[in-house]
Predict the 3D structure of the following.
Amino acid sequence: MNEVKATFVIFGASGDLAKRKLYPALFRLYKKGVLGEHFAVIGTARRPWSDEYYQEIARESVKDLTSDFEVVKAFAKHFFYQSHDVQDTEHYVALKKLADAKDSEFGCEGNQMFYLSMSPQFFGVIVGNLKSQNVVNPAGWSRVIVEKPFGYDYATALELNENITSVFEENEIYRIDHYLGKEMIQNINAVRFANGIFEALWNSRHIDNIQITFAESLGVEERGGYYETSGALKDMVQNHLLQVVALLTMDPPATLADEDIRNEKIKALEALKIYTPSEVATNIVRGQYGEGGIDGRRYNSYRAEDNVNPHSDVETFVAGRLSVETARFDGVPIYFRTGKSMTEKGTRINVVFKNSELGLYDSCVVGKYTAPLQPNVLTIYIQPTEGVSITINGKNLEDNLATDIFPLGYRRPEIEIEQAPEAYEKLIQDALYGDSSNFSHWKEVAASWKVVDAIKSAWTDQSVDFPNYQAGTMGPKAAFDLLEQDGNEWVWKPDVWYRERNLIKK
Ligand code: NAD
């Protein structure tokens, strides 16, 4: 691995994300040699910590990643702390001095990575001060990694973007969406473009519909306060889910260079149909969980969770039918659903192909029953299992004219999943190497917000009758009706297994 020389300036250094994700990611990069002796981390936050205490925090957050404590100690010696109020201009003068000193001490050649890991309301003021107090070092490269959410709607995202682009160029801005660091999300490109059989069929002539499920089995737990200000639409759809839609529906990029991939993703996102209020009513379903039980476990209703308004109308579930108006995908429904307190945790994509036009076989044996011929389905398992499967129709043993479903599948072994680089490690490494393929361009963020804003604004005028799905199920009835209206059904039905055994209780 080529070593990268850089000073990191982390805003929000005492926060949960920094301790749980950023320091372990930096440590793994250190062990791999992407970071060597020429790096320094300057952590800033409000608390009055000393360098020694901050180094202890760094050691504590990575100690389980190795048995070699000497490496941990050597790593933590690169960490320095500044107590910093992001609103106080004077503090940036001190920050510049410290950053310059550490740059010379560790030979970082003026390269700087600013990491904004705090509440987004502060992002604008931080970059403004970085500029006005000349913290940005012109000697090397300077990049900024911006945590999510990028704005709360299109207008606030635009304002934030204008603030950031007054200091950094678009190619210096890394808007993070940690889903894009997940192995199987990155694998979508490989599955699509490294396989002639799929590449040739990846269009409206052969694909009947695409289904994307991001299901969580837990409720909001201790995040009720945050969730009340967000809801499933903003928390999951605007960023992670629409990014997956873009990867699945974009045209093939000319090369795998970040700019080529982004350009195609931008085109796909800009081709998403923006719904009118009446189209929102027929294409988008929202839900909120009521109490329920599954497999012996009981779940509260959302309204009974801590820090949640007992009359809350915040959605904990969204499903929808999206339309990508490109020559490749026009007319292909892209169904999605995401929610809390669902039957099982799982992120997966089902690509449902059209049946053969030959019409020679028209039935399939499923257990004791005969069903219509089943479509070929390509499934990409993103988490917790990782893998790919495809169903093929083969001949039924007893009935020469009927078929059986032959599932062909690959699941990545658990040991490999455990050893694979973690999303933050991969993303920070990419940012250090200047590769922005797995970060969102402003135009992607803007296009996504426009889709989400149209839904949100239609909802303000439409009444809801919450709660409308029982915890432990796969969402409200309307989310099933949505597909039924098109003669389709959700391919992934984890609830069926539990229902057959009477394990889902009111
Ligand atoms: P947190 O509340 O745990 O930490 C916030 C940090 O900001 C603390 O270090 C605090 O000292 C600092 N801070 C607050 N006000 C300040 C001020 N005026 N001046 C200086 N420092 C100040 O937050 P977090 O969970 O670490 O999240 C940080 C960012 O990462 C947020 O944008 C969040 O949306 C995003 N994020 C977090 C997670 C996660 O798992 N925690 C996951 C994805 C994205």
The two ends are 55 Å apart (CA to CA). The longest helix spans residues 231-249.
